[in-house]
Amino acid sequence: MIPEGTNQVDAAVRAVLADILGLSDARVAAFTSETPLFGALPELDSMAVAGVLTELEDRLGIVIEDDEVDGEMLETFGALVLFAANKALV
Fold it and tell me: Which residues, including other chains, have CB under 8 Å from residue 51's CB and lie 6 or more apart?
């Protein structure tokens, strides 16, 4: 079962990736849950990760602790959406 509000989180993650990484809306719209992110998108380097997480905090009203950030949460688009949804939809 998909938690209520997941579509809004998905849209926010897509918007953040487009804004912070400078990706086109069409490219981000084509992302599926299996789309690889960190290590696959040259735009998503370690500095960009900090920008993405900060923007997600602002847009979703969440707090991301340093110890919560790992490669697994950034491995795929779906993993990032799930992480953000778990933080935002408590």
Answer: 20
Query: 10 Å Cβ neighbour count for 88?
Result: 19
- To the question of domain 6-88 being in CATH 1.10.1200.10, the answer is yes
**CA-CA-CA-CA torsion for 17, 21, 24, 25, nearest 10 degrees?**
20
Which amino acid, one-letter code, is at 62?
Answer: I
Within 10 angstroms of residue 40's Cβ, the number of other Cβ atoms is 10
List 36's β-bridge partners, or say none.
76
CA distance 64 to 42: 23
Q: Tell me the per-residue pLDDT of 34-61, one tens digit each, with 9 for 90 and over.
A: 999 999 999 999 899 999 999 999 999 9
